[in-house]
User: Which sequence fits this backbone?
């Protein structure tokens, strides 16, 4: 028994000795690694405490058009120009042992781990000010171990080579306070309208709480949340010996006034366009706000400076200074969807709301080309005729009635062709067409044209009573202009990161979605708004512009009680203009009703000056052009006083000659045999005639 006991004791001693040796070896290896890290950090020397770079924005020709609002570059202030109260408040809430530790607060780390384990989730952070500053100096904010190790190593290098004052100064000048304010100086000016050196204790405690969550603790977002955190910070300052409890209580009771505006707004080229670009960087490229603002990106855009300046000039010169009318403007290249110019309002500083991409307004008759494209697939042709007269339609339930009206309550009192109905914007023809095809037809086609806003299934949809965005309408008309290829509105062609590496490049490959023949027939019909040969009971809607245009255009105007539109194009450029009141107030002045057309024609003429005059070229197959009498859509004889060359989808061109103007003493021209029975669309709508 004694022998066995001695044997067990010796065995225990053996294991204990082995454990101690292994522990010493492990500790020695850890010390070697630790000393190696410190030695390597010392060899590398002081890391450059470079301020994150501004993001640069370039026009299509490479011209710099804007720079992100970099608080670090413009608002960096030395530590002595920062309120001591703000410094003490920040240290108290973010890292109370900042002046004692060497970059890592191990006691705090252990406490955070225990708190997380107890809660079963991550509820407490342990990053010191040095670690946070190291993180701010890294562009990558992904939650990977690689990034965390780099951050830790960077924190070691910072602590080894810089004083606490230098670290604190850098941290306070790079931390994000929300609303585009990076650094205490920008934040002080934004929230309080004063310099960081002038902040009171109460203001400092409130501001120090914002970085934890700008969208949650900003007093402009939630004064309640901000006030609660201010109280926590004031209590922490008292506990840490920076202020007395009585002073903290007095500061809590001090009322504060907030400004909420940057004092040095700098409006650069195309501010609405630049806002849209930043939004695309965030939503399409999924870049975070900090990377967009301070990531040192180079963003190459589609903006044409000449066309942008021309758009802004025409809007300023056309709309009377005393008018309350607002405007939304988009110019696009129909071949690839590149947005060449964008104006979202008359004054960006007064109203940064972008009416070109954000506002949803009724398009009026500018929706009709999409309706009539669908009609071409349902058997209609440019020569299809229907009666234009005041009509009351009974709807599906047999009780509800709908009575659309033409502009100025003028009607042909007889039959007109589709081509003429489009040119003079006859509403009766449009509603009859819409009801014949069924509401779902237009709704489906609107989606095909890239319009995503909700369309109401009602008869008035044919007259543009469901809202759309200006940029979507410009894109929809691009499909007509490019022969039926779907493109996407594009603002950015390429993005490079701070190292010059390409992180995005546009690859907007057009996709065929429309029948090229029908798309071209629609384009040719839309040239009719500028053709006096289509004058009838009313003049064509582009009559006031005819003497000012110097090249072929296709387009459509539109108006509702509250909205005025003009959308038109050449093969090189599509431009959409909306004008109206933000509040949907009726447009009553005659001059204001013409603003959209005036801006459009002046812009198109000036921006295309010196560029080749391009005609709309028909596809190689699928269309046939013939001379017709525009009054009745029949083949024109030599006796017809007006003959208009009109394109049709092959096989749908008219075969009957016009006999209204024949000299009966002479032989009639030979005609192909044609049945005299009424076509289907006349039978359908005889009840509504």
Assistant:
């Amino acid at each position: 028994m004694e022998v066995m006991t001695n044997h067990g004791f010796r065995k225990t001693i053996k294991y204990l000795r082995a454990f101690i040796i292994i522990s010493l070896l492990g500790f020695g290896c850890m010390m070697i690694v630790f000393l190696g890290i410190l030695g390597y950090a010392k060899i590398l020397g002081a890391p450059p405490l470079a301020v994150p770079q501004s993001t640069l924005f370039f026009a299509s020709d490479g011209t710099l058009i804007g720079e992100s609002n970099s608080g670090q570059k413009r608002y960096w202030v030395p530590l002595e120009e920062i309120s001591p109260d703000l410094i003490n408040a920040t240290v108290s809430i973010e890292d109370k042992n900042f002046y004692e530790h060497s970059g890592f607060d191990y006691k705090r780390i252990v406490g955070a781990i225990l708190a997380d384990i107890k809660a079963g989730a991550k509820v407490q952070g342990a990053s010191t000010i040095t670690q946070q500053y190291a993180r701010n100096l890294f562009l990558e904010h992904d939650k990977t171990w690689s990034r965390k190790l780099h951050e830790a190593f960077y924190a070691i290098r910072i602590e080894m080579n810089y004083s606490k004052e230098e670290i604190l100064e850098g941290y306070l000048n790079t931390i994000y306070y929300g609303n585009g304010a990076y650094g205490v100086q920008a934040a002080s000016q934004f929230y309080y309208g004063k310099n960081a050196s002038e902040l009171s204790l109460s203001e400092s405690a409130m501001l120090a709480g914002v970085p934890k969550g700008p969208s949650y603790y900003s007093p402009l977002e939630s004064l309640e949340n901000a006030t609660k955190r201010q109280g926590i910070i004031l209590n922490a300052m008292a506990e840490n010996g920076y202020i007395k409890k009585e002073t903290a209580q007095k500061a809590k009771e001090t009322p504060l006034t907030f400004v909420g505006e940057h004092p040095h707004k700098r409006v650069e080229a195309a501010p609405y366009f630049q806002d849209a670009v930043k939004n695309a960087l965030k939503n399409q490229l999924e870049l975070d706000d900090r990377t967009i603002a301070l990531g040192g990106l180079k963003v190459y855009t589609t903006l044409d400076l000449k066309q942008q300046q021309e758009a802004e000039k025409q809007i300023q010169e056309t709309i009377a200074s005393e008018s309350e009318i607002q405007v939304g403007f988009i110019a696009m290249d129909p071949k690839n969807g590149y947005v060449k110019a964008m104006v979202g309002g008359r004054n960006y500083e007064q109203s940064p709301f972008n009416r070109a991409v954000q506002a949803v307004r009724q398009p009026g008759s500018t929706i009709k080309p999409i309706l009539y494209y669908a009609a071409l697939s349902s058997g209609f042709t440019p020569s299809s005729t229907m009666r234009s007269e005041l009509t009351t339609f009974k709807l599906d339930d047999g009780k509800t009635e709908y009575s659309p009206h033409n502009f100025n309550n003028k009607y042909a009192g007889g039959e007109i062709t589709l081509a003429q109905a489009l040119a003079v914007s006859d509403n009766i023809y449009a509603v009859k067409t819409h009801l014949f095809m069924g509401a779902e037809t237009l709704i489906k086609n609107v989606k095909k044209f890239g319009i995503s806003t909700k369309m109401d299934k009602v008869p008035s949809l044919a007259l543009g009573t469901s809202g759309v965005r200006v940029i979507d309408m410009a894109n929809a008309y691009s499909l007509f202009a490019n022969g039926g290829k779907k493109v996407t509105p594009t603002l950015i062609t390429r993005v490079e990161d701070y190292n010059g590496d390409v992180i995005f490049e546009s690859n907007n490959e057009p996709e065929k979605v429309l029948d090229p023949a029908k798309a071209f027939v629609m384009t040719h019909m839309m040239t009719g708004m500028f053709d006096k040969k289509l004058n009838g009971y009313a003049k064509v809607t582009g009559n006031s512009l005819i003497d000012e245009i110097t090249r072929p255009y296709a387009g459509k105007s539109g108006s509702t009680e509250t909205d005025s539109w003009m959308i038109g194009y050449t093969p090189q450029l599509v431009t959409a203009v909306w004008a109206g009141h933000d509040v949907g107030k009726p447009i009553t002045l005659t001059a204001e009703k013409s603003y959209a057309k005036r801006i459009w024609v002046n812009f198109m003429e000036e921006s295309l000056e010196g560029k080749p005059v391009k005609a709309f070229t028909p596809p190689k197959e699928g269309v046939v052009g013939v001379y017709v009498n525009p009054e009745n859509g029949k083949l024109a004889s030599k006796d017809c006083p007006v003959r208009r060359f009109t394109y049709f989808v092959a096989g749908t061109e008219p075969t009957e000659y016009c006999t209204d103007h024949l000299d009966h003493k002479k032989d009639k021209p030979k005609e192909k045999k044609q049945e005299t029975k009424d076509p289907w669309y006349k039978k359908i709508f005889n009840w509504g005639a």
Notes: Residues 119-124, 664-669, 671-676, 680-689 have pLDDT under 50 and may be disordered. The first strand starts at residue 56 and ends at 58.
